[in-house]
Design brief:
single chain; alpha+beta; NE0471 N-terminal domain-like; three-stranded antiparallel β-sheet; 4 helices; 6 strands; globular
Length: 124
């Protein structure tokens, strides 16, 4: 039996955290979640980017691309984030979401380093 998502939150604008019914917790960068968007448009962009022609989508340059405006639960099986650039068509099943969070889990040390780098860049 697979675990259910209990909570998803953004403790910082650039981080996403999940808590699962089996006790697994994980934090990843928001850009990782966006880079794994399962929608048709994003998959098409990924396919073009991986081609030998080195396609770069202009959507990669949009302000707010990696900033989450809100996250909605879809039934008992998925979430759909709305990104600050208006993108909202990615439906992440809990199975996919769990895999993304397992594969990209940040350590506490990583999170601290990211926060420190963000603080330094604000002060410069």
């Amino acid at each position: 039996m697979s675990a259910n998502l209990r909570k998803i939150s953004t403790p910082e604008p650039y981080l996403v955290e999940t808590v699962w019914s089996d006790g697994f917790t994980s934090t990843i960068k928001t850009e990782v979640l966006r880079d794994n968007c399962p929608c048709a448009d994003c998959n098409e962009d990924k396919a073009k980017k991986d081609s030998k022609f080195g396609f770069i989508s202009l959507s990669n340059l949009k302000p707010g691309k990696n900033a989450i405006a809100k996250i909605e639960v879809v039934g008992n099986y998925a979430i759909t984030p709305t990104w600050k650039d208006g993108h909202d068509t990615g439906i992440y099943t809990f199975e996919l979401l769990r895999q993304i969070f397992e594969d990209n889990k940040l350590s506490d040390e990583d999170i601290l380093k990211i926060k420190e780098l963000r603080e330094k860049s604000k002060n410069n």
